[in-house]
Write a structure and sequence with these properties.
Shape: globular
Oligomer: single chain
Helix content: 40-55%
CATH class: Alpha Beta
CATH topology: Rossmann fold
CATH superfamily: P-loop containing nucleotide triphosphate hydrolases
Distance between the termini: 18 Å
Number of domains: 1
Bound molecules: 2'-deoxycytidine-5'-monophosphate
Length: 224
Amino acid sequence: MSPVPVLTIDGPSGSGKGTVSAEVARRLGWHMLDSGALYRLTALAALRHQVSLDDVEGLAEIARTLEVEFLAQAQGPARIMLEGQPVSDELRTESCGNAASKVAAIPAVREALLQRQRDFQQAPGLVADGRDMGTVVFPQAAVKVFLTASAEERAQRRFKQLKEKGMDVNLPALLQEIAERDQRDSNRSVAPLKPAEDALVLDTTGMGIDEVVESVLQACKSFI
Ligand code: DC
């Protein structure tokens, strides 16, 4: 029996991965793994249980015992629950993203979340969104895509997204945070952010979401 097909979509913050992955999963009728949410959930759970972001063993234990549910919705992204409480909005804050980036640099945390991510590979297929989906978590994936865009464009996109949610944001501060997070995600010793050797690298600077979605669907044409 051939394995359940996986499409990996990796890339830096604000590259449009989340939106593109969700739309591609919807169009293919496949499941979706938002792996960044698992790192965000680990950071949020640590905060709630008063485990310091410097406590490596404590954070690994949080990741191992994380009690989460992804509740699929008729439309839009899954509703994410942590220990029975809805946390989708809290997870998307910049402070949670920054804490997640620190937590994600810890090898024991990554190890603890590995099998949990692989368990999402279920029929008829999986779109896996993250940083190391094609390099570490699903190295045998049928199709691998790496999305990127200039830091300025990614900051602009994030700015617009957060503004639309009514959040108070500052563009230069966002650009600096994105640059710092890129630096941390790309230079960590374990599973750094980089395209898999067999990934299709798409620079989406100046491209609209629909155009990117079409390019990704084109790349997995043999499965449709
Ligand atoms: O994609 P995101 O912004 O929700 O990810 C939050 C943080 O988690 C990001 O700074 C990098 C980290 N991350 C990771 O290291 N590996 C992944 N597969 C997904 C996210």
